[in-house]
Amino acid sequence: MQIVQSPNPNLWVAAYKIFEELDDGSVRTLFHKTSTDFIPGMEYWARNRWVRDGSGDGWYWSGWHCFVDNYTAERYLQKLDRANQRNLVIRKVKVRGLSVKPSNRDVLLAQTMVL
User: Fold this and answer.
1) Is residue 8 part of a domain?
2) Is residue 7 a part of any domain in this protein?
3) pLDDT at residue 39 greater than cutoff 60
4) How many degrees, rounded to 5, is the angle at CA 42 between CA 38 and CA 47?
5) pLDDT given for residue 90 in this prediction
6) Is the confidence at residue 1, as pLDDT, over 50?
7) Position 69 in a domain
8) Contact (Cβ atoms closer than 8 angstroms) between residue 75 and residue 69
9) What's the pTM?
10) How many CB atoms lie under 10 A from the CB of residue 105?
11) 59 closest CA partner among 103, 15, 89
């Protein structure tokens, strides 16, 4: 299995991430929920580990799920069964340490994220 990685893992780039927006205006992650309240401008490291999703395509290094552009994020959001049950929003984030999720090439996995 080949994982495409960012040519420079220290380079910050813009990406788009789907969050659930709560009643108080704060956001939380949609995938692998964390109990963290995301504060704009703070740097968040993914809790990386080797994982395998339901497709069983092998193991890969986990990370923050994000997308290269808003269009791809919107398209992905439309596929989510629970999208109409929660207040899901797309936010622009800064990320670094990117790789492509092996089971879905539209999804990028970032090691570090800033909201």
Assistant:
1) no
2) no
3) yes
4) 70
5) 92
6) no
7) yes
8) no
9) 0.77
10) 9
11) 103
